[in-house]
Inverse folding.
């Protein structure tokens, strides 16, 4: 992948966290989740959309989200995914973990650029 | 809470919707419809992989693989029906036959008897030295019972055909009368009522079968009044289903009736008088005992032997001396069947071996044919593990199908065997499928299928797959290895088959020898009927004799009856002494016995015995006249004419002497699997009679006229009932029923082995032809005649057969010695049988070779050369 490409490939496991975050405000179907991730990262994070589905099923299996049948915005039957209380707790834990990690990495990188 | 798996079938729709939505978004951004969809699909990624990944979240990989392997294996089994059928049938035969036979052997030989302390149960009897018949008189019983310290219980019983009348319905059943202690040694607990005590001779304990079949399990049966042989009886208890004390009646010669007892009652053994004459009524019983805990059978035998020897010295009887028999009850019951069953068991395992060899053979040649395919698949993508897994699955599939077939076959076989001869062999009716052995046998077969299913592929893994592919399937070294293994298997099969075939052949010849009757003896024209003269009106012997005479004279004048006579059946053994001869020394005495039978005048000629010298009886015979047979004349009157000689016959003749008036030719009219024995006949008027056999020589089919004769004769005294109405041929045939059963099984094994061996030969030769199509093509292109090709293929196929034959004949020569005891009139090394067996195997193997070699001869050289 070219280094000039401004888009960032997702780190392993990050997708899970992103899905949980996307579902925090309320339930959504698969395509909406993909759109939402792309949109809110201003298309910087590029998800190969198909990989969303194995990730969703992993989260269901862990009990963090559940799938429910519902009607999509254009009146079609669709599967909606919703956070469970367990998933919400997980999101909090993961978010703070991520924040600490991101902060630490940022501090290291910034101190290095400053010293050079 | 365990997360629930969403319906994976929805996934397709979800993905489709996702792509549709993305397409719409793209169109909204201004793309054309086609472009929009293409971009959406690209952005989504590999749909198949997404679906697999989702599936993998829920279903572990190995389970998925297993499913796929099972599907592949099932497809392979279905697509190769002939091959699959051959393997499955072979496995089923191997598993089914050996399991069924083991189950039978287990029931008869290995399982403990149904007694409270089966290991302590003994059979007690006396036996005249030159006889094989056991006898327990009431005198010996009383003496032993009062004196033997080594026995905790000693029980006398008799087991007789009786007429059980319930209301107006009468049926003939076996009723056992057993003396005190019987319930203790059998450990019986009634399911209804209370067991009879010896204080109440009328109380009856019925079996659960009688309870079910005659009384329809009506619990009110307790207290019902019935009658046995005209005497009142009351049903006091119902015995449990597993009550099965195996009280056989041993030593019955003509009347082979082994029906299960239907009821039991108590027997009071009265102390007998000390001095015995013929009319004092010594009862004859059978006896069993239970050893005291800790007493060995040798100790018991020594003690009883001492008691018996002292008793014989102090109170000699005219019957002659006898020795004691004290043996484990289990041995007594199953003894005669032991050897035959052991042989059948070995034979069934030989069949299992042949079957395993066959499976190995089939799988080997199949593996050789698939060699190229397997090598290809190993190198392309799937990888060796995947291929091995699939072969494993195939082997398991064959093993499972064969196993199921084997279970079904063995269940059917066990039931069939019980139905055929369940009552003819002691304890056989208890046979159940033995699950332990089924597991072992199935494991052996499975292991064979696995070993030879995967082995060849494993060998491929270690060799360079590329090499195999380059060889173009025309590989020499590896296929030679397969060929050699295949030929070795064929040799093994042939060798094992010939052993079975020779054994079966010898038994066929034995039966044939037994049933080839001398001229004049036509047992199919002779009807026999048993009658036990019973009831108070026959207390006087004179009345009994008159009744018998009336029956005979009435039968003689009936339409369709050519002649009628009677016999009491073969009586007890008697020491034969000539007039003036002193009592022979003990050593001599042992081989001087002969059974003595009472007959009516016409009996011997009616059966077809012919007179050698002297005369027949007539119906006004004075007492003290006997006819002897040739065997006896030869043994005891070597150089003298026996006519006019007198022999000592206690109770019979005047002054205990009887004159020989005739000598008849030997005739095996009672049991046909033994040589003729010395025998003495006297007229029935001279002695008491109780059970008689009426024999009738009839025109036409005896069985069709039997009912009319029975009705007519019954009118003389309706209270007496006839039973065991059979042709003499039937009686004789029944006397060898166990032999015919052995033959049936051994014959089946031999045929199965032969078919499997033929299959093996065919398989190997067919494989060789397939392998060499190219070579055969070259030979024919170079001018070889079809005949020469056939000869070459057959000769090569017959090589392994010849090796197997050689080994097999040597083994059979040794093995048939083991079945010597089961043969009659045929030496174990009967050359004719061996020759026929060898020819049969050669013939069948030849055919198995010729079929595929003809295929080779029809090869079109041009096509064969192009084929590769």
């Amino acid at each position: 992948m070219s280094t000039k490409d401004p888009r960032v490939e997702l780190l392993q496991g990050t997708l899970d966290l992103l899905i949980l975050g996307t579902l925090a405000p309320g339930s959504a179907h698969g395509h909406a989740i993909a759109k939402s991730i792309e949109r809110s990262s201003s298309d910087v994070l590029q998800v190969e959309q198909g990989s969303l589905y194995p990730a969703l099923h992993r989260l269901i299996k862990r009990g963090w989200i559940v799938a429910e049948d519902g009607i999509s915005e254009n009146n079609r039957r669709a599967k909606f995914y919703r956070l469970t209380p367990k998933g919400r707790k997980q999101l909090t834990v993961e978010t703070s973990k991520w924040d600490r990690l991101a902060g630490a990495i940022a501090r290291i990188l910034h101190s290095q650029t400053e010293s050079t | 809470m365990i997360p629930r798996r969403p319906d994976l079938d929805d996934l397709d729709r979800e993905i489709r919707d996702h792509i549709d939505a993305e397409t719409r978004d793209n169109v909204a951004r201004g793309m054309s419809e086609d472009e929009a969809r293409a971009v959406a699909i690209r952005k989504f990624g590999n749909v198949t992989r997404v679906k697999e990944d989702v599936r993998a979240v829920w279903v572990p990989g190995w389970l998925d693989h297993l499913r796929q392997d099972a599907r592949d294996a099932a497809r392979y089994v279905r697509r190769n029906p002939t091959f699959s059928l051959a393997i499955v049938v072979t496995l089923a035969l191997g598993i089914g036959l050996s399991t069924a036979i083991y189950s039978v052997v287990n029931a008869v030989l290995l399982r403990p008897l149904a007694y409270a302390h089966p290991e302590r149960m003994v059979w007690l009897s006396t036996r005249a030295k030159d006889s094989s018949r056991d006898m327990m008189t009431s005198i010996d019983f009383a003496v032993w019972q009062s004196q033997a310290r080594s026995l905790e219980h000693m029980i006398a019983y008799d087991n007789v055909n009786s007429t059980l009348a319930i209301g107006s319905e009468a049926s003939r059943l076996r009723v056992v009368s057993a003396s005190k202690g019987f319930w203790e040694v059998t450990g019986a607990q009634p399911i209804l009522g209370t067991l009879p005590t010896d204080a109440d001779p009328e109380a009856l304990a019925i079996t659960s079968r009688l309870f079910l079949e005659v009384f329809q399990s009506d619990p009110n049966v307790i207290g019902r009044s019935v009658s046995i042989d005209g005497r009142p009886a009351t049903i006091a208890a119902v015995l449990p289903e597993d009550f099965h004390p195996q009280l056989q009646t041993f030593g019955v010669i003509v009347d082979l009736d082994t029906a299960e007892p239907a009821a039991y009652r108590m027997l009071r053994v009265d102390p007998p008088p000390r001095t015995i004459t013929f009319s004092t009524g010594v009862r004859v019983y059978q006896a069993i005992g239970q050893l005291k805990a800790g007493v060995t059978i040798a100790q018991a035998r020594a003690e009883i032997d001492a008691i018996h020897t002292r008793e014989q010295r102090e109170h000699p009887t005219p019957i002659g001396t006898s020795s004691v028999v004290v043996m484990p009850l289990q041995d007594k019951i199953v003894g005669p069947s032991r050897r035959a069953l052991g042989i059948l068991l070995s034979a069934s395992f030989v069949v299992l071996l042949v079957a395993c060899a066959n499976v190995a053979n089939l799988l080997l040649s199949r593996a050789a044919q698939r060699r190229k395919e397997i090598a290809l698949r190993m190198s392309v993508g799937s990888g060796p593990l995947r291929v091995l897994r699939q072969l494993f699955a195939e082997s398991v599939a064959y093993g499972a199908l064969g196993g199921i077939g084997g279970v079904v076959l063995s269940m059917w076989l066990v039931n069939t065997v019980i139905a055929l001869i369940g009552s003819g062999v002691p304890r056989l009716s208890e046979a159940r499928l033995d699950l332990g052995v089924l597991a072992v046998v199935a494991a052996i077969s499975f292991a064979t299928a696995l070993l030879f299913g995967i082995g060849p592929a494993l060998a491929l893994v270690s060799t360079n797959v590329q090499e195999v592919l380059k060889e173009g399937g025309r590989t020499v070294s590896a296929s030679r290895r397969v060929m050699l293994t295949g030929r070795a298997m064929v040799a093994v099969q042939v060798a094992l088959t010939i052993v079975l075939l020779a054994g079966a052949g010898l038994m066929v010849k034995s039966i044939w020898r037994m049933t080839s009757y001398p001229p004049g003896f036509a047992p199919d024209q002779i009807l026999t009927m048993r009658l036990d003269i019973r009831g108070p009106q026959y207390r006087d012997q004179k009345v009994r004799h008159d009744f018998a005479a009336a029956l005979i004279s009435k039968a003689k004048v009936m339409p369709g009856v050519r002649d009628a006579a009677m016999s009491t059946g073969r009586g007890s053994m008697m020491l034969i002494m000539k007039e003036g001869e002193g009592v022979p020394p003990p050593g001599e005495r042992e081989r001087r016995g002969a059974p003595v039978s009472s007959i009516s005048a016409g009996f011997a000629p009616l059966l077809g015995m012919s007179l050698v010298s002297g005369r027949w009886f007539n119906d006004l015979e004075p007492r003290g006249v006997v006819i002897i047979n040739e065997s006896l004349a030869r043994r005891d009157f070597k150089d003298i004419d026996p006519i006019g000689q007198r022999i000592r016959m206690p109770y019979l003749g005047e002054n205990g002497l009887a004159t020989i008036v005739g000598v008849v030719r030997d005739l095996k009219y009672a049991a046909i699997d033994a040589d003729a024995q010395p025998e003495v006949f006297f007229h029935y008027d001279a002695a008491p009679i109780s059970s008689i056999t009426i024999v009738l020589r009839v025109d036409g089919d005896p069985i069709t006229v039997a009912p009319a004769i029975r009705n007519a004769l019954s009118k003389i005294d309706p209270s007496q009932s006839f039973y065991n109405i059979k042709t003499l041929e039937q009686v004789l045939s029944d006397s060898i029923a166990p032999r015919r059963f052995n033959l049936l099984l051994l014959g089946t094994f031999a045929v199965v082995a032969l078919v499997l061996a033929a299959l093996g030969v065919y398989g190997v030769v067919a494989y060789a032809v397939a392998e060499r199509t190219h070579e055969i093509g070259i030979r024919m292109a170079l001018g070889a005649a079809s005949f020469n090709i056939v000869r070459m293929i057959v000769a090569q196929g017959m090589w392994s057969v010849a090796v197997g034959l050689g080994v097999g004949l040597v083994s059979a020569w040794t093995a048939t010695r083991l079945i010597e005891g089961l043969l009659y009139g045929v030496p174990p090394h009967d050359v004719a049988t061996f020759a026929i067996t060898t020819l049969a195997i050669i013939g069948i193997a030849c055919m198995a070779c010729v079929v595929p070699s003809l295929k080779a001869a029809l090869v079109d050289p041009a096509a064969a050369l192009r084929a590769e």
